[in-house]
Write a structure and sequence with these properties.
Two copies of one chain form a homodimer. By secondary structure, chain A is mainly β. Chain A has one helix at residues 127-130; strands spanning 13-14, 20-21, 24-30, 39-45, 50-51, 54-55, 60-73, 79-82, 86-89, 95-99, 105-111, 120-121. Chain A has a single domain (13-130), classed as Sandwich (Jelly Rolls), CATH 2.60.120. Chain A is built from one helix and twelve strands, in the order ββββββββββββα.
Chain lengths: 135, 135
């Protein structure tokens, strides 16, 4: 199992946002700020953890800093993501992300154009959806 | 000497921007994109390397991912920065950043509100300025 042992930024507190399945941690790096119009956080997903289907009115960029995870856009297959990967999530694209069943995953999340809105949450990702990854 | 051995993102090509003293490397993670209005790059400074005095019309956020470096705003003392540190550079604040004399330094640089302008370059940082760090 790969772990987040090389994580660079603090793991932070247990994430209490009710739109996650499983356990995750959140450490804010940049809070909402009019000068930058960006919000930056470090998110760690324990294995099997994922967030609900959701979208970002202003878009989001993920920079994977440790472990391996999943990223899926609505209507497309799950994409395996790992250390060093960059994920570009365009505004209003419905998607989810999380750890794999066997590895934690940590990413920096940059919410761009934050003034347009940070996130619109949808339904939880079912086990059937989560387990649909094909190598 | 601390090195960038734990760097996560590719080191990239030798940086040919003529506003640096010493050797640096640049790997773009997100190029200028209207949807995000951000530019994201991974920059590695070899020891002693620094960029010129400069400012960002739209601001910049630095996320230090390896090594130790210097950050200085005009009129203030040099600040030592290291792995896990976040530097908030407000729009139009004149500053420079780079490695220390004894350590490489790698940071992710997020240019925010890129449409306002990425960078305005000024004079090189003199050896006297670079060597003014007080522990």
């Amino acid at each position: 199992m790969k772990t987040t042992e090389n994580a660079i930024f603090p793991k932070g507190e247990k994430n209490e946002i009710p739109y996650f399945t499983g356990t995750s941690y959140l450490h804010m790096l940049i809070s909402n700020d009019k000068d930058f119009d960006c919000v930056v956080g470090n998110v760690t997903f324990e294995k099997k953890c994922r967030n609900n289907w959701h979208s970002h009115p202003g878009g989001q960029i993920l920079l994977v800093t440790a472990g391996e995870g999943y990223y899926q856009e609505k209507g497309k297959p799950i994409r395996l993501i790992k250390v060093g990967d960059v994920v570009e999530i365009k505004p209003d694209v419905i998607h989810w992300h999380g750890a794999t069943p066997t590895s934690e995953m940590t990413h920096i999340a940059i919410n761009t154009k934050a003034s347009l809105g940070l996130v619109v949450w949808g339904d939880a990702v079912t086990d059937k959806e989560y387990n649909s990854y094909k190598n």
